[in-house]
Write the structure tokens for this entry.
Amino acid sequence: MNAQDFQPLPPGKNNIILGIDLGTTNSLAAVMTPGGPRILRDKDGNGMVPSVISFGPDGRATIGSAAKAHAVENPLCTVYSVKRLMGKGMADLREDLRVLPYRVVGDDATRLAAQTQAGKPSTTAGAVAAASSGHADTTTAEGGCATEAGGARPTESREIVRVDINGRLMSPQELSAMILTELRQRAEAALGQEINQAVVTVPAYFDDAQRQATRDAGRIAGLDVKRIVNEPTAATLAYGLDQKQDATVAVYDLGGGTFDISVLRIAGGVCQVLSTHGDTHLGGDDLDREIIDLITGEIRSRFGQNIQFPPSTRQALRSLAEATKVRLSDAEQTTVEIDLGDGRNFQRTITRSEFESLAAKWLDRTIENSRQAVNDAGLSVEQIERVVMVGGCTRIPYVRRRVGEYFGPGKLYTAVNPDEVVALGAAVQAGILSGMKRDLLLLDVTPLSLGIETLGGAMGKLILRNTTLPCQAGELFTTYVDGQTAVDIHVLQGERELVKDCRSLGRFQLRGIPPMPAGAPKIRVTFLIDANGILNVSASEERSGKQAAIQITPSHGLTRQEVDGMIQESYRSAREDMAAHQLIDTRNEAGRILRAVDKALVNAGALLTADQRANLDATVAKLKTLLEGSDADAIYEAVQAVNTAATPLTQAQMDEVLRQTVKGKKVEEF
Ligand code: AMP
């Protein structure tokens, strides 16, 4: 990320508060800008820092992607999932310890009967108060998400865990601090200034000890943690849900290794967690494992039960399985190919529906957890008005389908990148704390027109600027090539007439249209913007019933100034733009006429006189020549000339159809 991507922040220098999603698998940082919250990215565009720390033989630590690469060769010195250890004692970690390859030790000598009060920083990193562990339901009020999360809880003694790296004992707080330091340094490099304040998110079920441990980690990393915010609350902040009318919201978070479902009540800008449920060992990794089991099972039955899969092969299989799962979010099927050596080659096509049947039992569990969370909140599922989707696995179409089936249609919020939504929400909270105005574009009208790309690069507007929200608009489109089975829907925003001058908001494809002649399919494109400014674009082919959809937040990343600038530019360019749009329309019409003439010539060309044919050929040739230029008026006239010259052909074709109909019939049959 370049510093110039960011506009100057209103608060004075060194007053930036970083928003941080300190995740089990990946961590991200974001800042508030006048155009809304933005993720901080490295020069390659990566925002995510894997929450992995690897120690070399000299004790030096590497953090992030480079550390992750060492996981296979150096398992004892590569620490991941440290979030699972935060604020926990040995007794709480029995299940985790079985799967973590590095050494975790208890420290009897430092067993403390801490009497730390909630919210009061402990003096020793790791000396923290304890409450229940695991998935305790929490009821937490966060005003604007304004009050501290986590109330006072009874304290008890808890043994401190440490990670043993070649005899060097490190607390989870120190390890988490390394990840936070990496994020802080990245942010400082991107923004060109020192940062020493942050808002950090934690799961809603984190108890006081876990929250305090997170705060301590921040302090070790040189960050004053101004606020600990619940992850589901951050997700609703990223969507601006706290700003509009009161609502009851569920946040469904399915990541790589954990699943969380929370029910929140937003009223008067205050966000209250009513209930949380989940499974700290359920996520994308389980779906990957299903694919691995399918592949290894078939390899063994084809090439012998005694085939072994050493750790390096297992790691490769894990990567392959994950890539397969990700590909199946876009494609209906994908082929995996594995070279087993000795001329043995395994190839297998996996379809999306096959993957869905493997994933079903895991999805059942998430739905069961959701049902419990809704019950615990004392609500019926109908009372949940929106469902915010968080975590990489919510990109899986099957996950969206199942969640949509349970909560009801039209409630899912998927517009914000599910990997980034929590960090973006943390930045929104940071912006509030530093006194910045909120996303200025959360208006009650659409600030700019919205539409789709039409043939030839023109912008077809469906919703005009200044339309009051919520609103809906639809239009019918069709294909322009015979047998076309897919159409690209490119969603645009802006006041200009050409695609190249508008802002691209997203694209999706409507696939599986049965082959039909050009112009026959009826593709209805619908734009629906809800009261929160979330745009749902759907496309359906009416004859076949095929459907596809995308969700977008049109206001993201635009400042009031940028919007005004775009509108001014459209006034200045209005005349040229109209001419350009007219040229595109005229060319499209010319293309349609030329295709129709070609078709008619095949059917009835032989019926024309030589003169008629010569006349038609000449006008067609002239039109084709003019199409190489950009004189819209001349093309328009040439189209009219072709139309006139083609009249005898149209007439002959109609006569021929009539003759075929009449042939062999008696007068009394008419
Ligand atoms: P998170 O913990 O939120 O970063 O989510 C990571 C999980 O999301 C991993 O299991 C990824 O394989 C999975 N994931 C990310 N993108 C996709 C995608 N497009 N389709 C399916 N799974 C995905």
User: Anything to note?
Assistant: The CA atoms of residues 291 and 355 lie 8 Å apart. The pocket of adenosine monophosphate is lined by residues 25-26, 255-256, 283-284, 322, 325-326, 329, 391-393, 395-396, 419 (CB under 6 Å). The radius of gyration is 31 Å. The first strand starts at residue 17 and ends at 22.
